[in-house]
Amino acid sequence: MDRFVEIQLFIQVAETGSLSRAAEALNLSNAAASRHLQALESRLDSRLVERNTRRLYLTDTGQDFFNRTKAVLADLQDAEDAVNASALNPSGTLRITASLSFSMQHIAPLLRAYTERYPNVKIHVEAANRYLDIIDNNIDVSIRTREYEPDSNITVRRLARTRRILVASPRYLARNGKPKTLDDLQQHQFLIYTYANKPNELRFTRDGDVTTLQVKGLLESNDGQILRAAAFDGLGILVQPTYIVYEDMVAGRLVPLLDDWDLPHLTVNVAYPSRKHLSAKVRTFIDFIVEHFQQMDYEKKWSGRFGGS
Predict the structure, then answer these.
(1) Residue 25 domain-assigned?
(2) What does the alpha-carbon distance between residue 294 and residue 289 come to, in Å, rounded to a whole number?
């Protein structure tokens, strides 16, 4: 038992950089915490933590030991959560990250139903238009539009395929005319999403033909909701994944353009740390969102054509 407490304390010290904060987290006195840390270093016959007048920091040996022991404790927690999952009573804080657009349109509307089903789970949504490092940021579930992760410790599960599409408001088209050909697009202003791959370049395909255009941006932003609002106001043509503008097209707020051409498709995926035993909160949320996507038939809706020309 002392060995387990020693490792818990060491991990707290490594994460907080403070012996007193680590002691407080484990409800230990500072003296007891110091004895546990000294006992751990003595048993391992290695210096794990260096101390100066301002802070504590890990030695190289300590950093390696931290990486290994943190993974072991995480597996232990996952095993306990897996047992808890069998009773369908997940608990704790579920940390989710997605873009602001996806968070607003496809995460937030699910939270009431999920928390009613699993009332002991608290939700933290980290809206971020750049991909956060899942491990470093303690993320449980991430929604992403890339098909693979550079980190082999991340599992990726597909939710739906989605097209990218050109749209504009009726107000903009009434003032500027509706483009009939790709060449017509050179006469129009665009609303540019700066985090897109090559944001000022559009690569169109149709029946084996490929055309690449450079487009002009009247407005650039790193957030799709700002650009969507600008499109409503008639500022220009918007290029976004269908999952962002589908309901706007159905309602007539935005009109699809040149829909017989394809831009590169995207895959909406759920990504999460690979574990032998998924925690109950993670497993239930993934099952919940997969079930929702299937019920809503999003892939069919988001990968279909709308007849805009």
Answers:
(1) yes
(2) 9
Q: What is the CATH number of the domain that holds 54?
A: 1.10.10.10
Instruction: State mean pLDDT over 259-266.
Output: 94
Print the domain residue range for 274: 89-161+267-297
pLDDT (mean) for 169-185: 96
115 and 147 co-located in one domain: yes
pLDDT at 202: 95
Residue 217 has pLDDT above 70, yes or no: yes
Q: Is 135 a member of any domain?
A: yes
- Note whether 66 and 146 are same-domain residues: no
CATH assignment at residue 220: 3.40.190.290
